[in-house]
Amino acid sequence: LCSGSSGNVQVEHVYRGTVSGVLFRDDDHREIVVALKGTTSDEEWLMDFKIYPMPYHFLSKRKKGWRKYFSFDSDCRGCTVHKGFYDGSKEIYDNMFAQIAELAHAYPDYTLVVTGHSLGGAIAPIIANELLFLPADRTITVISFGSPKIGNKLFAKWVDEAWNTRYHYDNLHSGLHKSAYIRVSHKDDVVPLLPVKQLGFYHCGIDLY
């Protein structure tokens, strides 16, 4: 992970743990970017193989006084997600979210971009869900590369509704004008095919294949 700034791109925070990410500010494009790395270490591979589902809840609800800061009042009922990806999301949340929220508050007119590859691509939308429901009118874009499937059918349906996936599919010709979740996959990459649908996992977001 990069740790130094360059030109008008300022690295604001770097986290290295079982999963890792970097937060930076791009003044040229007026963006705040959260970039999450893919699987390279043994610990990350073990996280990938924690395939069993667990109930999905907003990570912010673990914090006392969350109702002061968030506009939602209900969870994604019946939703389950891959335990390894959820554990990784908790780690990123606990070690990066405060810095993300602080930077977003300091630059309210900047677009928030959350991106990641492979394991990072699976964690990115879970972290972005927390940002989507902050009571602020800003554009948030999630771009995952080579992401595996994250959760069950109810989770996929809820995410697509929250991120207006159908609207974006119907209006791709005019560009993205609202917050959106974009999932980029390559025809020769097997990772987006996993975990298999027979285990109850489904994709969500705008699929650019």
Automatic annotation (TrEMBL):
Location of the Fungal lipase-type domain: 33-197
Coiled coil: none
Record-level Gene Ontology MF annotations: triacylglycerol lipase activity
GO BP: lipid metabolic process
Claim: Hydrolase is one of the keywords in the record: yes
E.C. designation(s): 3.1.1.3
Any single Pfam family the record assigns to this protein: Lipase_3
Full protein name: triacylglycerol lipase
Organism: Pichia membranifaciens NRRL Y-2026
